[in-house]
Amino acid sequence: MLDLRIYRAAFVPAVLALVVAAFSLETRPRAITTALPPDAFDAPRAMRLLERLAERHPSRRPGSEGDMALAAEVQRTFEATDFEVTATDVRGETIDGERTLRTVVAERPGRLSGAIVLVAHRDAAGSPALAELSGTATLMEIARLLSGRTTRRTIVLVSTSGGSGGAAGAAHWADSVSGPVDAVLVLGDMAGTRQRRPQVVPWSNALGSAPQRLQRTVEQALRTESGPPGGSSTVMQALRLAFPLTVSEQGPIVEAGLPAVLVSASGELGPGPGDPVGAGRLEAMGRAVLRTLTALDEGPDVRPSGPQAVVLVRNQMLPEWAVRVLAAALLLPPLLAGIDGLARVRRRRERILPWVGWTVALGSPLLAAALVVLLLGLLGAVTAPAAPVPPGAVPVSAAALVGAAVAVALGFLALWPLLRGLAPASGGGGAGVAVALLAQALSWVVWAVNPYAALFLVPAVHLWLLAAAPEVRLGRGGRMLAVLAAALPFALAALAYGIALDADPLQLGWLGVLAVAGGVVSIPSLVLWSAIAGCGVAALVVAAHTEAPRPSGPGIGPVRSRGPLTYAGPGSLGGTASARRR
Description:
Order of helices and strands: HHEHHEEEHEHEEHHHEHEEHHHHHHHHHH
Shape: elongated
Helix content: 40-55%
Oligomer: single chain
Strand content: 5-15%
Structural class: alpha/beta
Number of strands: 10
């Protein structure tokens, strides 16, 4: 089934792709800076405002009376300036289900095209949530100090609700934007004394992140005012692009195609309801935001073409096209070897299509469970916003977990007769080729959509092919171990996300359930990854029934030939003497 010479030779393009990737590294764009100090930001005044707002509106669940009352106070503050103010009510999914959310927008046109936007959410899951409210206090203070100040670009201030989970208000605003936008600064925790890095969060809920120049500009402002903001490792950046997920408000904004970053002292997760605040931290973060706004307003045109899917390697950018070339080169060896194996199996007149259907069927229980969870979300049995939520924001639903488990159990029970009838014969070449080629086809579909996710599938398509090939001399245990090792990159990805989101395995699994129920994961993605999971199960079954070929007689070793494989030497026709002169 497998010609190891073809498999090894196909690695030559991978070496060339590595060289191309190494020479494709680009220098990060320089940060936009300003010499004007942000002394206008009045931190004591903003701190008093924060305390007064928390005292007047201690409970601010999304869409609640406290949230609406705070929205009215923000609107009055905006109207006292020279901004043009509008308020819009929309229906959105929150951590409390569907609610009416108010978005207050203050806008003042500039001389140049393009806008600089500041966004902050008012709501909070707990009380008093001073640190979470500090973004709104900073937004109101910046509105006051910008009143009467001339700016080159349009300034837009946006107060949203739903930021405690799902970011429904921010998502609705981003979808309604019509004019050009240069940058969006999402104000998170501006006063919390418990710091968590990175403090500039560019991630999206789709492939891509905020432009590098915007990130560097905000990072430089934070470094000037409050110290190094921290950053993500190269592996973590690749993971964020392979499986896009973020629980903060810049996620749906970047997904809508706008350049946005979250600025927060406590990072992506945000502060707890009882986290302490400090005037010194509020001053440093407020000055950094004002410095960034001034630099963007006075600097050159920074409007990007859209989100960027680049990874930083030693502070240099590895572009998406280089990652795509590298992923394709790494997927090429099992593809060529699988096609050659298919030709060999077809010459032996072995059937392939029944094994393809068998492999796909093995992934159907997982798809059934996902569809059950999606149905529960559509029926309202599970409170699932349309974007990922922080761990613990939505309580775990036993009904959703039990429904998904029952769907998986019933699915495998329905497939058991098929498994029992076909699995003992799965050591044939047809089963192995079917699993390998189907996994290859699915991995190339993933590559076309997201090359970073395809890199996580590279070990799987190699190991599943080798585990199913009788020519590879591994014992049954070694083959099964090779199949299971293909899941290691995904296990490490789950571990990395668990650490980044401070979530235990149950919370992380529940976040995945909410993502399915809320429609964050599309139905085509569910079908695709269920089929890939089916390939993994099928590869495990095939590996358990695959044995290396054995000699047919006693004392007979493996046949070795010299010259072309189609020539067996003199006498190959049976008793024919050599024609060579003696």
